[in-house]
């Protein structure tokens, strides 16, 4: 019987199967119902993005047992271990967090690797006078308070681990370019690597870096990395094994590793990445703590960036290096206290959106959870670059489809010409994107892609037959890595006809050109007129239409709305029912984790 036929999801069935195996492994199933339920909860939690579950959740199912008795029953089963004990399928820590062993092991290893880098500050050679001069030349004196970009670059010069959190347009790339220039002054042979979780994010990172580096002297500009890779490619995936060539025992051959869009890193990948940074290397993580967390388990970047406090000794060193009054270096209050003091900087000033930008103001209000104010302002209208279409219908009507298709007007014009080169086609396609909160609903990615594709084909004179899978102008997103073709999850291509009329799917390559692949050779893929907000991370578009479902859903959160809005550079259209949007803004993503506890255990 399939998962669909059983009425349960595949994740539910896998968790139930694991729970039954735990019962068979138990040496003393004094309370088999307790063990089976605990194992199910720990396994199922990871499918919802949590690293662990809480004993309190188990206690709700067994109110006749107190927490102490539940702990005794679980630890006595022989299946549940403790952090300092022998490995067991499940681990229960002192605070009542219950893990699958694999995720507890990831947390412990990640905490150890992070602390190794955080404590490596004292082994670094202090920045030379030439570096100090370069830093102050690249970041001239600023008015109106301390220059946090300059302070972040200085912090990275003084340490081996730096976490920079800021929304789009807050200057993260500019900061990194200037930092790398300073590091190259310090060490002209410095080996620098750039990476991001997806191919699109890596390509955008490289493009932005090249653009921002135009002001640097040619001697420094030529030493900047010529490529950026996905984290998987950087670590060297061993096909079919799930392992990487680079790890703690065979670290990366780099002096500095910069990772963009780090909020997309799940716990497992973050662990492998940080462990692969050499003992004498530097790691710089860039991201947005308020953005959506990884699809898989963990919210690593949000946890690491929670505490931007700086200690007095480090403030003094920063002040001396940056020619800043130490009294002016006042950090924001932390989201929560963590052991990563002196490693985190928050950027809040936005250089992309003017003070009167509707997108900037909307994103800030969403991020603050001001649901009623957001709805009132959207209904009032008048915000520059923001359009609100109040539409709570279960399925998109003809008017909404027309509105969504209008966003692709330039793309349709380019495809009608029949003469455009791939670069022009991609430029037109990337000006606009439809973002959906969910996949499987009348207003989800799958349904919207079918609607837009049918109308797109009709307007190009290609017919509206949904069985016509391949046609010029069809955008596709790769869903599964193919190491032979070097296509990776999230890579986007466009179908175009070659001079002989044969259809090929064109993908951007690392050198700024394109490579054409026969459609039959593609790995698993889907049409990409519309994307989920999750899939849009690492991308930006001139205009975005954010389409909400007709009813409240567990996936609708403040972080999802904020992420969708901030994919737009110039204009965003929000389509949905006001009560659904308001509820999404009020709901924050909560992921159970013990990473901070593991860091505190190390001290």
TrEMBL record:
In the RecBCD complex, RecB has a slow 3'-5' helicase, an exonuclease activity and loads RecA onto ssDNA, RecD has a fast 5'-3' helicase activity, while RecC stimulates the ATPase and processivity of the RecB helicase and contributes to recognition of the Chi site. It comes from Methylococcus capsulatus. InterPro entries: AAA+_ATPase, Coronavir_polyprotein_1ab, P-loop_NTPase, RecD, RecD_N, RecD_N_sf, UvrD-like_helicase_C. It comes from the Bacteria. Heterotrimer of RecB, RecC and RecD. All subunits contribute to DNA-binding. One of its GO terms (biological process) is double-strand break repair via homologous recombination. It catalyses: ATP + H2O = ADP + phosphate + H(+). Residues 158-466 form the AAA+ ATPase domain. Keywords: ATP-binding, DNA damage, DNA repair, DNA-binding, Exonuclease, Helicase, Hydrolase, Isomerase, Nuclease, Nucleotide-binding. Its EC number is 5.6.2.3. This is RecBCD enzyme subunit RecD. SUPFAM superfamilies: P-loop containing nucleoside triphosphate hydrolases. One of its GO terms (molecular function) is DNA binding. The lineage of its organism: Bacteria, Pseudomonadati, Pseudomonadota, Gammaproteobacteria, Methylococcales. A helicase/nuclease that prepares dsDNA breaks (DSB) for recombinational DNA repair. Binds to DSBs and unwinds DNA via a highly rapid and processive ATP-dependent bidirectional helicase activity. Unwinds dsDNA until it encounters a Chi (crossover hotspot instigator) sequence from the 3' direction. Cuts ssDNA a few nucleotides 3' to the Chi site. The properties and activities of the enzyme are changed at Chi. The Chi-altered holoenzyme produces a long 3'-ssDNA overhang and facilitates RecA-binding to the ssDNA for homologous DNA recombination and repair. ATP binds at residues 166-173. CDD domains: DEXSc_RecD-like, SF1_C_RecD. Belongs to the RecD family. NCBIfam families: recD (TIGR01447). Pfam families: AAA_19, RecD_N, UvrD_C_2. GO terms for cellular component: exodeoxyribonuclease V complex. Gene3D superfamilies: P-loop containing nucleotide triphosphate hydrolases, RecBCD complex, subunit RecD, N-terminal domain.
């Amino acid at each position: 019987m399939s998962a669909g036929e059983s009425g349960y999801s595949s994740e539910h069935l896998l968790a139930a199967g694991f729970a039954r195996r735990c019962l068979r492994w138990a040496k003393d199933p004094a309370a088999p119902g307790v063990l089976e339920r605990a194992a199910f909860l720990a396994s199922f939690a990871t499918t919802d993005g949590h690293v662990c579950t809480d004993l309190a959740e188990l206690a709700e199912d067994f109110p006749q047992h107190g927490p102490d008795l539940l702990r005794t029953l679980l630890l006595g089963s022989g299946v549940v271990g403790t952090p300092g004990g022998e490995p067991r399928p499940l681990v229960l820590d002192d605070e009542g967090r219950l893990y699958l062993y694999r995720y507890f092991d990831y947390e412990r290893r990640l905490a150890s690797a992070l602390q190794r880098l955080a404590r490596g500050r004292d082994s670094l050679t202090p920045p030379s006078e030439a570096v100090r001069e370069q830093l102050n030349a690249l970041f001239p004196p600023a008015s109106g308070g301390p220059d946090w970009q300059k302070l972040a670059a200085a912090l990275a010069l003084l340490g081996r681990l730096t976490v920079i959190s800021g929304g789009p347009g807050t200057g993260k790339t500019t900061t990194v370019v200037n930092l790398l220039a300073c590091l190259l002054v310090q060490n002209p042979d410095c080996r620098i690597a750039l990476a991001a979780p997806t191919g699109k994010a890596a390509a955008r990172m490289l493009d932005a870096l090249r653009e921002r580096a135009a002001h640097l002297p040619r001697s420094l500009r030529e030493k900047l990395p010529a490529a950026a890779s996905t984290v998987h490619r950087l670590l060297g995936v061993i096909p079919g094994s799930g392992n990487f060539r680079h790890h703690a025992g065979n670290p990366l051959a780099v002096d500095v590793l910069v990772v963009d869009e780090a909020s997309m890193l799940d716990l497992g990948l973050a662990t492998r990445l940080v462990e692969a940074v050499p003992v004498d290397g530097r790691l710089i993580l860039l991201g947005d703590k308020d953005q959506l967390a990884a699809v898989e388990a963990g919210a690593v970047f949000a946890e690491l960036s929670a505490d931007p406090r700086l200690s007095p000794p480090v403030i003094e060193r920063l002040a001396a290096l940056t020619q800043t009054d130490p009294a002016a270096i006042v950090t924001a209050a932390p989201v929560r206290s963590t052991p990563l003091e002196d490693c985190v900087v928050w950027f809040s000033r936005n250089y992309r959106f003017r003070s009167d930008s509707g997108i900037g103001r909307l994103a800030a209000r969403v991020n603050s959870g001001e649901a009623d104010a957001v709805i009132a302002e959207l209904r009032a209208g008048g915000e520059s670059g923001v359009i609100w279409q109040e539409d709570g219908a279960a399925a998109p009507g003809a008017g909404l489809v027309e509105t969504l298709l209008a966003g692709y007007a330039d793309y349709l014009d380019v495809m009608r010409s029949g003469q455009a080169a791939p670069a022009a086609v991609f430029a037109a396609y990337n000006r606009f994107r439809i973002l959906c909160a969910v996949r499987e609903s009348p207003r989800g990615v799958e349904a919207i892609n079918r609607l837009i594709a049918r109308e797109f084909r009709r307007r190009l004179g290609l017919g509206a037959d949904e069985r016509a899978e391949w046609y010029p102008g069809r955008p596709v997103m790769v869903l599964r890595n193919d190491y032979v073709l070097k296509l990776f999850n999230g890579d986007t291509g466009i179908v175009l006809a070659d001079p002989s009329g044969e259809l090929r799917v064109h993908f951007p390559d690392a050198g700024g050109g394109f490579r054409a692949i026969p459609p039959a050779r593609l790995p698993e893929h889907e049409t990409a007129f519309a994307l989920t907000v999750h899939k849009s991370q690492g991308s930006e578009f001139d205009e975005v239409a954010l389409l909400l479902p007709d009813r409240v859903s567990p996936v609708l959160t403040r972080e999802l709305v904020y992420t969708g809005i901030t994919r737009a550079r110039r204009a965003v259209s929000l389509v949905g029912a006001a009560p659904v949007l308001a509820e999404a803004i009020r709901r924050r993503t909560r992921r159970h984790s013990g990473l901070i506890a593991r860091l505190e255990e190390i001290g």
